[in-house]
Amino acid sequence: MDPTINGFNPFMLLYKVLIFRLIMVGAVLLWLLTAACIKTGRPQIARRAIELAEARLSKDGWPEYYDGKLGRYIGKQARRYQTWSISGYLVAKMMLEDPSHLGMVAHEEDKQLKPVLKRSSSWTF
To answer: Is this entry keyworded Hydrolase (predicted)?
Structure first.
């Protein structure tokens, strides 16, 4: 779907949902988001998520998760300097710098798949 035509962009919706989840769980899911973005040809979404993570996580001491509706508060039971938060960030950063690393986490059958981005059937020129 073309967001300039109908105003709906499914990747932006996914981005907003995943960023909210990323804020809630720290950087554990960051590498999964990065892999999905690379596979679908949208690395700019992963780049933005990594920028947000860099700004928050290192300043807050790499917590496990954040609390609150907007993810502003470090979780009450969250431990700091968690290896999975740090490693999730590092794997995402390395995958974005060199997308060939995606092969280490992707399934074999994924190599044959090519993302198909189509316009909506209601789209007209």
So the answer is: yes
Six-digit token pair at 47?
Answer: 């780049």
Question: How does DSSP assign the chain, residue by residue?
Answer: --HHHHS--HHHHHHHHHHHHHHHHTTTTHHHHHHHHHHTT-HHHHHHHHHHHHHHHHHHTS-S-EESTTS-EE-TTPPSS-HHHHHHHHHHHHHHH-GGGGGGTS-GGGGG--------TT---
Contact 78, 66 (CB under 8 A): yes
CA dist., res. 121 & res. 90, Å (int): 40
Return the sign of the alpha-carbon dihedral for residues 11, 17, 22, 25.
negative
Decide if pLDDT at 61 tops 70.
Answer: yes
The pLDDT tens digits of the residues spanning 63-85 come to 776 666 666 666 666 777 777 77
- Rounded to whole angstroms, the Cα distance separating 124 from 62 reads 47
